[in-house]
Amino acid sequence: xxxxxxxxxxxxxxxxxxxIPLLKFAFTPPGTSLIQPDGSALxxxxxxxxxxxxxxxxxxxxxxxxxxxLLYQTYPHIGPPTPESESHYEAYAHExxxxxxxxxxxVVIDIGSGNGLLLKAFLKLGMKAxxxxxxxxxxxxxxxxxxxxxxxxxxxxxANDIKNDHGMAALITANYTLGAVDNLHAxxxxxxxxxxxxxxxxxxxxxLPDLLxxxxxxxxxxxxxxxxxxxxxxSFFRSTLLHLLDAQRIPFRSGTLRLTVQRSDGPHVVAPGxxxxxxxxxxxxxxxxxxxxxxxxxxxxxxxxxxxxVSDFKGKGQKVAGYGASSRTTTLVHECGWxxxxxxxxxxxxxAKHGCRLAGTDIPIVSAKALSERKPGVVLLFAHHHANxxxxxxxxxxxxxxxxxxIFPAPIVx
Length: 414
Known about the structure:
Blueprint: E1 5-7, E2 19-28, E3 47-54, E4 60-62, E5 64-66, H1 68-73, H2 83-100, E6 107-111, H3 117-124, E7 128-132, H4 136-145, E8 148-150, H5 156-166, E9 169-175, H6 184-194, E10 195-206, H7 208-213, E11 226-227, H8 230-239, E12 242-250, E13 256-263, H9 274-283, H10 290-315, E14 320-323, H11 327-336, E15 345-347, E16 365-366, H12 370-374, E17 378-381, H13 387-393, H14 395-399, E18 403-406, E19 412-413
Parallel strand pairs: 6-7, 6-9, 7-8, 9-10, 14-15, 14-17, 15-16, 17-18
Antiparallel strand pairs: 1-5, 2-3, 3-4, 4-11, 10-13, 12-13, 18-19
C-alpha cells in the first residue's frame, strides 16, 4: 500500500531547505475523511499538522502533504451554495470580466470549480466557462449548469488539452485553490501556456494577516498547504514569467486576499495601490517568527476560554452542539481534545454528511432537526464566516432559551 502522505523538505516555491517550523497543532486525519455510517473512513491515520516558514522566500507552508488523489479525486462533499457566496461570485464575475475586458464567448477557466457558483456567473455573462476540478461532485455541478468540465488536476498537459479543444483563455480563475496545491510551478507553467497575451488571472486565498489577528487557527488543516501573501507570490510569479498586477484585501470569508496576474509580456498596467499593499505586508513582519509566536499564545488563551465555557454548560447538564462539519472544524475539535462526551453532535446543512462522524472522532453529524429534537443548551458556530447569518437563522432556537457561541477572535455567547 502506498504512503498516504509524504514529508517534503525543500520549500515548494524556491526549493530552499531553510524551512523552519513555526506552529504545531494536534495531528488529525484529513477533514474530508469523515467516518461513514458503516465505520469506514478513507483515511484514518492522524497526520502531522505543522506550519513552517521558508527563510529565503518567506512562504508560510505545510511540509506534510496528503496524497491529493485521496483528498480530491474521491472528494465526497462539495458544500451547498450560501447567500454570501452566491452574492460574492456574482460580483466577482462582473469585476473580473471588466478587468479582463471580456467579450461574449471568451474562454474562462475556473481551476478548482467546486460547486460551480463562479461558472454559473460567467455563463450568465455569455462566456464559455470551463471548470477544472478532479472531484466527481464538481464535475456533476458543472454538468447541471451546462458548463464544460475537465475532471483532473490543472497542469501543463491539461492546459495543452484545453488549448487544443477550445483555444486560449481570456481569463483564468483559482479561488481557495492554489494554497491547496503542492506543485505550484506546474500550475504557473500551465497558466502561462494557456492564458492569452492580453489575458488576466484572478486568484483568491485566505488573507494571512486576518488569520493571525482573528486567531483563526482552524484555517490550518490538511487541505491548505500554503498561506500565500502578495509579496511572496510577486517574486514567485516573476520567476515563472507571470506578473502581479494588483493585490486587495476583501471581506469575503472573514478576510480574503485577491491577486490579479498577467503574463510577463502582457499589456496591463500595474494597479497604483500595489506598492502600498506590498509595503503594508512587509510592515506586518509576516516574514519573521514573532507574529506567529504571538498568534500561538493567543490561540492557547482562546482554547482555554472555549474549554471553560463548554465545561460550564456540560456541568449544568446541558448538551453542547456545533454548527458546521468542515476541515476547519476537524482542526478545532482535535486541538481542543474533544470527543462526544464534550461535543454531543454537529449540525451541518449538507445532507451527504448526515449519519457520518467527524474525521478521527466519535462525534456524529446530523441535520438541523436535532435542535428541536435534542435541545442542546448551546451551539458553537464553527462555520464562523457565516456567523451573522446563522445567528439570525437560529433566532427561534435562541428565543426558546438556547445560546450560540461565536469562537473567533475570542469566544462570545450571543
